[in-house]
Write a structure and sequence with these properties.
Number of domains: 1
Strand content: under 5%
Shape: globular
Structural class: mainly alpha
Order of helices and strands: HHHHHHHHHH
Largest sheet: none
Number of strands: 0
Helix content: over 70%
């Protein structure tokens, strides 16, 4: 076959479909994992009885909104980390506002709670449920994000995995908060953070294992 004929034949063939963008892959992975998480949540825990009334209190609402914001910023950072030489940019600076706000809520509650009730509010009655529940609920979302990020090229796989774990844990904590009746920041600012830290560590291990080039 002549070169001109080969070029004409190749030009006549349809172009291959473009590969899905990393954002689209991550979105689909997060949605798929989130669907599994929601099913698990509804099957095992379910929303609290007075959810609507509870969320009318800004302090209780913060228990859901803060993890959601964390998930949003951490997810953006995870996607950036999956591309070589892409700086963390604005999300890398804004994300620190979330722990700062959580810390402010904690110290506000410390001052607003009577001295004799502080330890009771801090320990609560559901620590043994809170930490494992948030961790388990984060795993399907983390799996979806890690699978999607394999289409990228993270320079620091453990860091990318940790950010994915942070995003997954934020979503899981927000969902779990709809069940949790521990409404004091003395409780959720500490123990939700512990659970999120555990899931972030799992993400780091998963990233080191599955996101290596």
């Amino acid at each position: 076959m002549k070169t001109e004929d080969l070029i004409a034949t190749l030009a006549a063939e349809p172009a291959p479909p473009p590969a899905a963008s990393l954002e689209r892959r991550a979105g689909l992975g997060a949605v798929a994992g989130l669907a599994v998480t929601v099913v698990l949540f509804l099957a095992v825990l379910g929303p609290r009885a007075n959810l609507g009334a509870a969320l009318s209190d800004p302090v209780v609402l913060a228990k859901t909104l803060m993890p959601l914001l964390l998930a949003l910023f951490a997810g953006a950072l995870a996607l950036r980390s999956a591309r070589p030489a892409v700086p963390s940019g604005v999300p890398g600076r804004i994300v620190w506002l979330v722990p700062a706000a959580v810390g402010a809520l904690f110290f506000w509650a410390l001052g607003a709670t009577e001295a004799g009730q502080r330890l009771v509010a801090f320990l609560g009655h559901s620590t043994q449920v809170c930490i494992p529940a948030i961790t388990v609920l984060s795993l399907p979302i983390l799996a979806g994000l890690i699978h999607a990020m394999r289409g990228g090229a993270p320079v620091h796989p453990a860091r990318s995995g940790a950010l994915a774990g942070l995003a997954a844990a934020g979503m899981a904590a927000a969902i779990y908060s709809l069940f949790c009746t521990e409404d004091s920041p003395l409780f959720y600012a500490v123990w939700y953070s512990v659970a999120i830290g555990v899931a972030t560590g799992i993400g780091a291990v998963a990233g080191r294992r599955f996101l290596r080039w």
